[in-house]
Design brief:
This protein has a single domain (2-253, 315-368), classed as Luciferase-like domain (TIM Barrel, Alpha-Beta Barrel), CATH 3.20.20. It has an 8-stranded parallel β-barrel, surrounded by 7 helices. The protein is of the alpha/beta class. The protein has helices spanning 15-22, 35-52, 73-83, 101-115, 131-137, 144-161, 197-205, 218-234, 254-276, 291-301, 303-313, 319-333, 349-362, 364-368, and strands spanning 2-7, 56-59, 88-95, 121-126, 163-167, 172-177, 190-193, 209-212, 242-247, 249-250, 316-317, 335-341.
C-alpha cells in the first residue's frame, strides 16, 4: 500500500478573530500568528516525507477563512516538485466548479511534464461545500452539481486523450488540444471526492475512482464508498481501489498520543464545523446539498459528538496502535493509498514533526507491506 503525507496549513487560533471581523466587530486586522509563517513552516512536511520514504505529498484547496490557506493546490505542488526529489504529488482536491476545467487539465499536464519520468501527479477533484467560498468566487452554489458534472467530463477527456469537444449548459468546447502534448493517459490518476449521494452518482457513472476525505465522519465516508461500489458495478465497471485521507497522531506512549489527539483532532473538527457552517442549516436548501440538512439537525442536537468523532475514529496512539487501526481501516475501505494529515488544529509544528518522524520510522514500513483488496459491490 502507498502512504502519503498531506499539507493542510490551518490557522486555527485565528477563528475567533475571523468570525468577529465577519460580524463587523472591531478586531485586529491580522492574526496573532501570521498566515505566511504557518504556510512556510508546513513546507517542511514535504521535505520530511521526501527524505523518510513516503510515496506522495498532497495538499488541499480552500479560500477566505483560517480553515486551510492553500488557494491553488497545483501551483503549490509545482513549487514542492522543485524542492523534493522522489515523492509523487496529489490534490485533495481541486474544486472543479471554481475553475475552468480546460485550465485545470492544462495545469495538471504542465506539472506532469515538469515532474518527468518516475514521478506522477494524482489529480483529486471535488464539488466543494463552503458557502463563503462560493460567494467569494461569485458562483451560485445551486449550480455546483451541473458545473461539476460538466467539468468532470471535460477534464477526464482532456487527461485521457489530450483533446476534447464538449457541448453543455455551462461549457462549449470545440476541438481543444493540450500542448505540450501529454506523454500518456493522465486520467488513470484522476480521483474524486464524493461527500454526497449526488456526487457519488456522478463519479460512478463516469468511471472516476473515489478519493475519500472524511471531513464529517468515517461512518458517512464508508456509507458513500459502499454506495459508489454498488453504482459502479451496475454501470458495468470492474471493482476499484480507493484513496483515503486519515488524521493521525503518533507518540511513544498512549497517554501522550491521547493528549495530542484529544486536543488537536477536536480542534480540527471544530474548524470544519466553522468553515462549512454545518450548524447553520443553509445547505439543506441548496440543490444538490439536501443531504446536509439532516446532518445539521443531528449536529444541533449534540455537536460534541461531531467534535469528538475524529478522536474516536482516526488512528492515533503508539506506533503499534496506529498500525493496527490503519490496517483495519485500509482493509475496510479497500484502499491503495492513505494520505495522512500530521498537522491540524492548533498543533505546533514541532509536535507535528515529532509525530511524523516517529510514524516514518516505526509505522510507515509496516503499512507499505499491506495489500488491501478493492471493496466489492457484493460486500458493500
Amino acid at each position: 500500500m502507498r502512504v502519503g503525507a498531506t499539507i493542510f496549513v490551518q490557522n486555527y487560533p485565528d477563528w475567533n478573530r475571523y468570525e468577529a471581523e465577519e460580524r463587523g466587530e472591531q478586531t485586529p486586522t491580522r492574526p496573532q500568528t501570521s498566515d505566511r509563517s504557518i504556510f512556510l513552516e508546513e513546507i517542511d512536511i514535504a521535505r520530511i516525507a521526501d527524505a523518510t520514504g513516503f510515496d506522495s505529498v498532497w495538499t488541499v484547496e480552500h479560500h477566505f477563512t483560517p480553515y486551510t490557506m492553500v488557494t491553488n493546490p497545483l501551483q503549490f505542488l509545482t513549487y514542492l516538485a522543485g524542492i523534493t526529489k522522489r515523492v509523487d504529488l496529489g490534490t485533495m482536491v481541486v474544486v472543479l466548479p471554481w475553475h475552468n476545467p480546460v485550465r485545470v487539465a492544462e495545469d495538471v499536464n504542465m506539472l506532469d511534464a515538469l515532474l518527468g519520468p518516475g514521478r506522477e501527479i494524482i489529480c483529486g477533484v471535488g464539488r466543494g461545500l463552503g458557502r463563503r467560498e462560493y460567494n467569494g468566487m461569485g458562483i451560485d452554489q445551486a449550480d455546483a452539481r451541473d458545473l461539476f458534472d460538466e467539468s468532470l467530463q471535460i477534464l477526464r477527456q482532456l487527461l485521457a486523450t489530450g483533446q476534447c469537444s464538449f457541448e453543455g449548459k455551462h461549457y462549449q468546447i470545440k476541438d481543444v488540444h493540450l500542448r505540450p502534448q501529454p506523454e500518456g493517459d493522465l486520467s488513470r490518476n484522476l480521483y474524486c471526492a464524493g461527500g454526497t449521494a449526488e456526487t457519488v452518482q456522478i463519479i460512478a457513472k463516469h468511471d472516476v475512482r473515489p478519493l475519500i476525505i472524511p471531513t464529517t465522519s468515517l461512518e458517512n465516508a464508508l456509507m458513500n464508498a459502499r454506495s459508489y461500489m454498488q453504482l459502479r458495478s451496475k454501470a458495468g465497471f470492474a471493482p476499484s481501489d480507493t484513496k483515503l485521507a486519515l488524521w493521525t497522531y503518533c507518540a511513544e506512549t498512549e497517554n501522550e498520543a491521547r493528549a495530542g489527539a484529544e486536543q488537536y483532532m477536536v480542534e480540527y473538527a471544530d474548524s470544519a464545523l466553522r468553515h462549512y457552517e454545518l450548524l447553520r442549516g443553509h445547505l439543506g436548501g441548496i440543490r444538490g446539498y439536501e443531504a446536509y440538512g439532516a446532518m445539521t439537525d443531528a449536529l444541533n442536537k449534540d455537536v460534541e459528538i461531531f467534535r469528538k468523532a475524529f478522536v474516536r475514529e482516526h488512528p492515533w496512539g503508539t506506533p503499534d496502535q496506529v498500525i493496527a487501526k490503519v490496517k483495519h481501516l485500509a482493509n475496510l475501505f479497500g484502499t491503495s493509498e492513505i494520505m495522512f494529515i500530521f498537522r491540524y488544529g492548533g498543533m505546533p509544528m514541532k509536535a507535528a514533526e515529532k509525530s511524523m518522524k516517529l510514524f516514518a520510522r516505526e509505522v510507515l514500513p509496516a503499512l507499505k507491506e499491506l495489500h488491501p483488496r478493492p471493496m466489492l459491490a457484493e460486500a458493500a
